[in-house]
Amino acid sequence: MTDQPPEGRFRASPDGGLAGAAERLYQDVGFLVRAELERARPGIATSLRRAGLGTGALVAAGACGILALLSAHEAALRTLERSLPPRCAAATLTGAYAVSATCLAWFGYRRLQDAQAATQQALDEVRGTPA
Questions:
Q1: Do residues 56 and 108 lie in contact, with contact meaning Cβ atoms separated by under 8 Å?
Q2: pTM above 0.70, yes or no
């Protein structure tokens, strides 16, 4: 798609009427909107991908957090109880889940920050303001 409307779009209508001018204005605005959307599409797609990764990481962090609070993973708990006292086994699992939740939450937060910055950059490009 070109940045300029097709040649002859801005010529006066043969009858010089208001309806012809309104039709040309309608077509020109449509052309400009389509051109701007085409120009913004790559930035928007990048932002959506980054936001998707960040959101997925936060969901995973939430799942790990629940496991840390409840120490519900019975198989691992029972395995640890074979070599550690029950309290130490539960504390070990809780610590592992808490560390996992913290790492995933940090990763998700950073990805969402990156997506926000990319979205702002794409909006600035569309508006024509320097980043």
A1: yes
A2: no
